[in-house]
Amino acid sequence: MQFIKYELDEHILTITLNRPEVMNALSREMYAELEQAFIDAHRDPEVRVVILTAEGRAFCSGDDVKQIMLGEKRDESTARLRDVRPRPTPAAQAILECDKPVIAAVNGPAVGWGMDMTLFADIRIASERAKFGELFIKRGLVTDLGGLWRLPSVVGLSKAAELLFTGDVIEAPEAERIGLVSKVVPHDELLPAAREIAAKIAANPPIAMRYMKEGLRKSRNADMQEMAAYVGSALAYLFTTEDHREGALSFVERRPPVFKGR
To answer: In this structure, how many other beta carbons lie within 10 angstroms of the beta carbon of residue 200?
Structure first.
């Protein structure tokens, strides 16, 4: 890949946005690579957790305005805001459908679709240099699924409305205060902090982790009875796995468990 780094180490996959000269602005090619990276992560049994981060001083400044929004290098008849269709943005769908836990390690400003991208993650950790802003309203647009679907459940409807309607950019401490990020750490400690959490996740049984993530996803729209049915079906399968037996046996034997994803 040209604009995305894909590095797997001890079941932890680090996906790094790598277009720092333009603050990791998303071109059409970069969107396609991001989508493919998460499709690959979803399919690879060696991946147990994903860290999403970026090179340079910014996490992501949103769309590459010259290329995507103004149609640079495209025929005027097709110069539109992407090829909009009544379906999720493919890269967003790939991140949201990845069955591995995703940690966004936000190293700098994350605005526009860059902020949306952090919201597609399950856990967000921010450098002290991070900033967040849903700038779509200032461009005469609406936000993607990150802002309209995920943000209200993360910070509440009132705060989401404030951020979406004003287009204000907030600093990392405010993002932590409102629950947008789990924690703020010194800039040089960002990736070590993300890897520490990732290592804890990667050490857990991967099959149960996939069911846990799917359960959280379902809980957004399911009622109590639907969730109870999901829990029952999940447990019925998980009780049959080698990892469950290993978890129980290691507890009895007072030793660290070794999970194999079986």
So the answer is: 10
